[in-house]
Hints:
By secondary structure, the chain is an alpha+beta fold. The chain has helices at residues 2-93, 95-98, 113-126, 139-151, 157-167, 173-180, 183-197; strands spanning 198-207, 210-223, 226-240, 243-256.
Amino acid sequence: MLKRAMKRQSALFVCLIASLLHISFSHHADADDRSMQIKQAQMKRDFEKRSREMKAEFERKSKEMKKNFEQRKAERESASTSSTRTSGTSSSSNSSSQSTPKVAFDPSKAPSPERCLAYFLVSARKATSVHEFLKYLPDEKQQSLKRRQERYDPADVPRSREFFLKNNPDMDEESLKFLTNPPFVNSLNYHKHLAGRVTKITGVEVDGNNAKIRVEVTSDVVVNGIAYTRGAATIGMVGEGSLWRFNSYSEDIMVSR
């Protein structure tokens, strides 16, 4: 009897312990679930808050970019209007120099196209100013170049450099100089470099007051370690007044050694 009673008590004790453990584990499991739910809810709130902040920041930057764009647009339009107004005033006071009609060509008084080209090349090669070869350019190009030079303002250079660098931070110094140089300087550099590359005239075709002169030019093309030092180009000349004037330059794709 005593043994059976002890066994019964022992069994009851085991059941009691098991029940307590079950309750404890259930309590911890419920606590873990609630903790996870709280964390998930907090993460959701944080995510939604961050999303709202990012959206607000995006909208702010978009408005700022739009404002800057509109401001730059207004500045460009203002500058354009000012230039047009200045140009118009200048035109009214100097109509004879800026409204010069195209010069009539008199071939009987003009040297040959190739000789006029030679005059231009010699002048451009040794020139230190565009004025030394300007007369060998077509009248229309002369007037256009002069007008652009008149509108050029050195005070605008810092702002122009800042604008170009802002739009292209990788722009090199040479490109920046070209974009902000006075028109006369760029014209001098271009024609001087071009004239220095022409080595000889190889052919001439004349059609009315237009002429095409084939020339040989120097080349600095290197392909697979092989230098190709000679190329070819076509120079267009137009007859005006008593001269054939340098009008265009088109270089061939093919080069040779």
